[in-house]
Design goal:
With about 150 residues, the chain is of the alpha/beta class. It has one domain: Cobalamin-binding domain (Rossmann fold, 3-Layer(aba) Sandwich), CATH 3.40.50.280. Helix 2 links the parallel strand 1 and strand 2. Helix 2 packs parallel to helix 6. The chain is globular.
Length: about 150
């Protein structure tokens, strides 16, 4: 319940901050593409990461849930240099995460890929060839901060 309350508070704050981001008064640090992998309809963790990353000054492109590999590739093609984050809550969709990471590596070798979700571990991240894993949204924010500093 505390996490959901914090998310609501962050959402309310972002409503006031978004006009500054969109006006160009605040310089964006980069683009961040995020989505829940194909077959998975869960979005609470993804939404928390997206809110915190946006609050950290990144332009967030949220693809939603049940995102096919081709959609990640298409949006990455339209936004070269963007960081990509994949989320999975179900163990049954972890294979889809692996396939998406492999496809991104094949077409956009230089892209940074973050993975997360309840069944995902640092070991799994390394096994599938992603760049970073965090068990929580703050870890993703810290990684991105280090990436652009």
């Amino acid at each position: 319940p505390q996490m959901l309350m914090a998310a609501k508070a962050m959402n309310a704050a972002m409503m006031h901050l978004k006009p500054f981001f969109q006006s160009g008064q605040t310089k964006r640090k980069g683009k961040f593409i995020i989505g829940t992998v194909s077959g998975d309809l869960h979005d609470i963790g993804k939404n928390l990461v997206a809110m915190m990353v946006e609050g950290g000054g990144w332009e967030v492109i949220d693809l939603g849930v049940d995102v096919e590999t081709e959609k990640f590739l298409k949006v990455l093609e339209e936004n070269p240099g963007a960081v990509v984050a994949l989320s999975a809550l179900l163990t049954t969709t972890m294979e889809n995460m692996k396939q998406t990471v492999t496809a991104i590596r094949d077409k956009h070798r230089e892209s940074k890929i973050l993975v997360g979700g309840a069944p995902v571990t640092k070991e799994y991240c390394e096994k599938i060839g992603a760049d970073f894993y965090s068990p929580d949204p703050q870890g993703a924010v810290n990684y991105l901060k280090a990436l652009v500093s």
